[in-house]
Write a structure and sequence with these properties.
This protein has 210 residues and is mostly helical. Helices cover 71% and strands 0% of the residues. The protein folds into 2 domains: 59 residues, Homeodomain-like (Arc Repressor Mutant, subunit A); 125 residues, no CATH class. It contains 10 helices and no strands. The model has no long low-confidence stretch (mean pLDDT 87). It comes from Actinocorallia libanotica. This is HTH tetR-type domain-containing protein. Keywords: DNA-binding, Transcription, Transcription regulation.
């Protein structure tokens, strides 16, 4: 950005500074929400000057959007993939149970980007922040992956009769995990295995009812 001082000459140094800013902004936004996040708070917590922040990010909205992007990329790399090996002959229920059993156990350690994204979804503004748009796009990306995974289990007849089913099931999975995410903020005694069995039962019922 013109007029801003570069936070280092080597690419490695610049990346270290960028990540420090992203982590500081993520912590503040998770604590104080979008409105409560300011560049001055980010500079104080990161220990870097405002010129460094503006070197990487054009404004607060761009910064929060990048917080979500950075957090999502880190989080998704640690999650089980919604990709079915063609050689996998497990029934749908067993495959779904295996994926959810791994993924729901990461929710108690909720990544900051998920908290921030959920807050943005619940806040209405005349001008939709770039960060909110990006979070919605990441959710749509995940929903598409889950829907494709469900579709891989459907025969041609089911796909033709109920073309919307896979997408509907993907939304059910996302809605259920959203609920579990909120529930963990209230009661950390929830049994993840029971949650998984409920979701699997709902999916099985939806697929077999015609």
């Amino acid at each position: 950005m013109s007029g801003a001082r570069t936070p280092g000459t080597r690419p490695a140094d610049r990346e270290v500074s960028r990540v420090r800013i992203l982590r500081a902004a993520a912590e503040i936004a998770a604590e104080s929400g979008y409105e409560g996040t300011t560049i001055s708070k980010v500079t104080k917590r990161s220990g870097l000057p405002a010129s460094s922040v503006y070197w990487f990010f054009r404004d607060k909205d761009h910064l929060i959007a990048e917080v979500i992007r950075h957090g999502f990329e880190q989080w998704i790399s640690s999650q089980p993939r919604w990709e079915r090996d063609p050689r996998d002959e497990r029934p749908l229920a067993e495959g779904l149970r295996a994926i959810l059993s791994r993924s729901v156990r990461s929710l108690p350690q909720t990544p900051d980007f998920l908290r921030i994204g959920q807050m943005l979804l619940l806040e209405a503004r005349e001008v939709e922040p770039e960060a909110r748009q990006y979070f919605l796009a990441t959710r749509d990306e995940v929903a598409s992956s889950i829907a494709a995974w469900f579709t891989s289990y459907f025969d041609a007849g089911l796909r033709a009769r109920r073309p919307e089913l896979a997408r509907d099931l993907a939304h059910i999975v996302l809605a259920a995990t959203d609920g579990l995410l909120f529930a963990h903020q209230i009661d950390d005694a929830l049994d993840p295995d029971e949650f998984v069995e409920v979701v699997v039962a709902i999916v099985e019922q939806a697929v077999t009812s015609d």
